[in-house]
Amino acid sequence: MSRLERLPEDLVAPVDDGACDHLPGLRLPALALPATTGPSVDLSSLPGLTVLYAYPRTGQPDQPLPTDWDVIPGARGCTPQSCAFRDHHAELAAAGARVFGLSTQDTAYQTEAAGRLHLPFPLLSDAEGGLARALNLPTFQVDGMTLLRRVTLILHDGVIQKVFYPVFPPDQNAAQVLAWLAENNFAAAIS
């Protein structure tokens, strides 16, 4: 397991600062986001159930992490979170959900990460910040970069049904999403 796949034991947990309280019930804007699998994706137009997990940035094994990355609450854990969604992808698909990851990294960077991590779903790029601005998603600054804070949205027909924020620990987020879908009988309710 690489250093990017392991979470430090003393990882700083984020606190709920209310930055996502406005999201439940919002319709996503019509916005085409570049995808690692080819054509751009407009999340607002997708029918049915969609899980969108937003994360700060996927690290690369041969590159240093951003300054003080391990002490920024909620920053560390993008690779473990993506790997968890990969490992639970079949269960999420069986529940009727399509999965997308979202970061402000460009598509070329994301394509390398998706291939290296063997992700069976697309990563979407919000490098221009259009979706983050439209939804007023929480962000933070490090090393001159504006990055998304970790948040996971469950959408139905382009409308936000459930918000997971803050997400901690990130490697448990996919399991949390599956548990919420089961507890709320969400897939059966929309069939």
UniProtKB/TrEMBL annotation:
Q: Where is the Thioredoxin domain?
A: 22-186
Which GO terms of the cellular component aspect does the record hold?
cytoplasm
Q: Which SUPFAM superfamilies match?
A: Thioredoxin-like
Q: Which Gene Ontology BP terms does the record give?
A: cell redox homeostasis; cellular response to oxidative stress
- Which Pfam family, just one, is annotated for this protein? Redoxin
Question: What are the alphabetically sorted keywords of the record?
Answer: Antioxidant, Disulfide bond, Oxidoreductase, Peroxidase, Redox-active center
* Protein name per its UniProtKB record: Peroxiredoxin
The GO terms describing molecular function are:
thioredoxin peroxidase activity
